Amino acid sequence: MAMAWEQGELFPKATEEEIQRTKFMLGKYKEMTMLMQDFERFEEDLKQVAVDGEVTRRIDQEDLYADKTANAAILIEKQRWVYKQYHLYTHQMRRAWSLILDEDVKRVIEYRYIQGFSYKETLLFFRRGLSESTIRRKILEGVECISNTLKLMVFFENETKK
């Protein structure tokens, strides 16, 4: 089966909305990785809490009766689905980050988003070698670069289909 390509750019540029979406996801990167690690380490405990916990009595307040076993299964599947989404997002962002060519931009983005330091901490860390305006510019360049790569990977189109 042949794939039809629309006429367009070979290397498409991300829209402002896609850049903002990337910046939001990068801001959540560290939190997503921490939640994924927690899920991987304590999945069995989470299952047990779902079965034993009060949360599964009624998932929806409109329920007239509670099927705790079924609700626990739904809750566990929801947690697994969230884990898979986080895994996909972080994996794609990490791939896009690894393709940044400028080493300074790559280091600034790694420190700011991958390692999860605040903007102020990033400024303080790179203050000796780079000015504040240069660091700000490199963060913007990095986010835009990652956005463009994610667009090339058709990430945003796949995300909106879900």
Written overview of the protein:
The protein has 162 residues and is an all-alpha fold. Helix content is 71%, strand content 0%. It is built from six helices and no strands. The protein is globular and about 55 Å long. The two termini are 25 Å apart. Mean pLDDT is 82; it is low at 1-5.
Features:
mainly alpha; 6 helices; disordered N terminus
List the helices and strands and how they pair.
Blueprint: H1 16-52, H2 68-98, H3 103-114, H4 119-126, H5 132-152, H6 155-160
How do you describe this structure in short?
This protein is an all-alpha fold. It has six helices and no strands.
Q: Please describe the biggest sheet, giving its number of strands, its sense, and whether it closes into a barrel.
A: none
Strand content: under 5%
Average pLDDT across residues?
82
Radius of gyration: 20 Å
Helix proportion range: over 70%
Q: How many strand units?
A: 0
Query: What is the tally of helical segments?
Result: 6
The structure class reads mainly alpha
List low-confidence stretches: 1-5
CA(first)-CA(last) distance: 25 Å
The coarse silhouette is: globular
- H and E order: HHHHHH
